[in-house]
Design brief:
Elements: E1 16-21, E2 38-39, H1 42-46, E3 55-63, E4 69-76, E5 87-92, E6 104-114, H2 122-140, H3 143-146, H4 158-162
Organism: Prolemur simus
Protein name: Riboflavin kinase
Pfam family, one: Flavokinase
Length: about 160
C-alpha cells in the first residue's frame, strides 16, 4: 500500500506512538478557544523525532486504558500566542465528563494536515482548528488509518498506568 502523501520535512516515522502524563497547559484550549486540549510534559515534546516538523497532525488517542478516539495534535510554538517553548497539544474528539490531569495520554500520530501558521484573529484561528478537526475525521475513516485504532499500543495494562509509565 503506498504511503500517505506528506509534506517535505514532515515526520518520516509515521505512525509515531508516544505516551505521557497529562499536565496543565496554558489554560487557553477550553477557555479561549472552546476546544479543550490535553498537554504533554516537556520531556515528551523534547523526545519527539528530530525530523518532526511543527504543524497540525491527526491520529488516535486514549486516556489511561480508556476508549480510543480520533484526535488532532498541534506540535510547535503556536505563533498566534507567540510561545517560546515548543508544545504538543492534543484535542481528543470526545466529550469527557471531567478533566484528566495526571492521567496517562496515549497518542498515535498517523498523518499530517498542515504547517503551523499565524492568524490575524482569534476567530480565524478557531475556524482553522474546526477545519482541521473535520479534515482529520474524514482521513481517520480511511482503512489504512482506521486499523491503527486497534493497535496493541492502546492495550495498556492497568499496572503500567498506575506506575505512571
Amino acid at each position: 500500500m503506498p504511503p500517505a502523501p506528506q509534506a517535505d520535512g514532515v515526520m518520516r516515522s509515521l505512525p509515531y506512538f508516544c505516551r505521557g502524563q497529562v499536565v496543565r497547559g496554558f489554560g487557553r484550549g477550553s477557555k479561549q478557544l472552546g476546544i479543550p486540549t490535553a498537554n504533554f510534559p516537556e520531556q515528551v515534546v523534547d523526545n519527539l523525532p528530530t525530523d518532526v516538523s511543527t504543524g497540525i497532525y491527526y491520529g488516535w488517542a486514549s486516556v489511561g486504558s480508556g476508549d480510543v478516539h480520533k484526535m488532532v495534535v498541534s506540535i510547535g510554538w503556536n505563533p498566534y500566542y507567540k510561545n517560546t517553548k515548543k508544545s504538543m497539544e492534543t484535542h481528543i474528539m470526545h466529550t469527557f465528563k471531567e478533566d484528566f490531569y495526571g492521567e496517562i495520554l496515549n497518542v498515535a500520530i498517523v498523518g499530517y494536515l498542515r504547517p503551523e501558521k499565524n492568524f490575524d484573529s482569534l476567530e480565524s484561528l478557531i475556524s482553522a482548528i474546526h477545519g482541521d478537526i473535520e479534515e482529520a475525521k474524514k482521513r481517520l475513516d480511511l482503512p489504512e488509518h482506521l486499523k491503527l485504532k486497534e493497535d496493541n499500543f492502546f492495550q495498556v495494562p492497568k499496572s503500567k498506568i498506575m506506575n505512571g509509565h
